[in-house]
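== Sequence and structure of one protein ==
=== Format: two labelled lines per protein ===
==== Data for this protein ====
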Amino acid sequence: MFAGPALKLFGKDYVFIFLGALFFLSFILVALLPTTTDKGLWFKESLAFAHRTFFNPKNAFGKLDFTFLKSEFMKMIVDIKAGISYMKKNKTVAQASLILGATQVSDATLLVLAPGFSASVLHINLTDTSFVIMGPMVLGVALGAILVGQIGLHFNRRRGALRSYQIIAASIMLLGFTKRIPLSRIESRIPGFANSFFGVDFLAIAVLLIFILGFFSSFVEVPANATIQEKTDDNMRGRVYGVLSWFVTLTSALPVILSAFLADLLGVEKMALVIGISMLVSSSYIAKVAKEW
């Protein structure tokens, strides 16, 4: 949401320094989190690995030492296998993860199309994208999460999540029709006093649809996350979310790459229709499979 203002404030060169500082701050905050292992030992091993691999001149053109990285990677593989095995036995967790993952894949694909949608459909400056697109979406997510929290006890999670998923799909499809038409094209056909009132400018409609998209995303993600947390054992929760992140990363790679290519070939509006239709089709499959939560 603040990407546009940050770009305007720091410029296209210094904004990367600002982003790097934020990542470094994130690293510090994560390092301060409590852990079950010896934090001091882990921190020393991480620094030693970074020094051996990236800061040792002898390794600049020689063989890099990836022993530590390999051991961490193997631990990750073991955790993923354990998470998958657990989800196979716990269908409620697996089904909630399925609809949550499908929503996150769709979100990732939409984020790729956001700049093109802003430029070719809404005809707004790219630096304003964060306010026009991300702003309404964040507001919708926040209000939706508050409402879900209020009605949580009287809310059928499965039915509500599926209906919300379908509403998100319909909103994305309608976004494909919100091509912004400048008022100057039709002002000669409309009485002067009515120009400002009847302006055929669908920017407001697009903003409303984006708000609806964010609002109903909460009705998918909050119940699904709540189900996963409630139905997962404490010692397996991290592994289940690790599997979910792994699943989203793998399954979103191809749609993200193809959506960027097809958007250039077919246009952003048609891609919005394709994504919306794909979500509607997948919702029928999810409805058949996810029946136990």
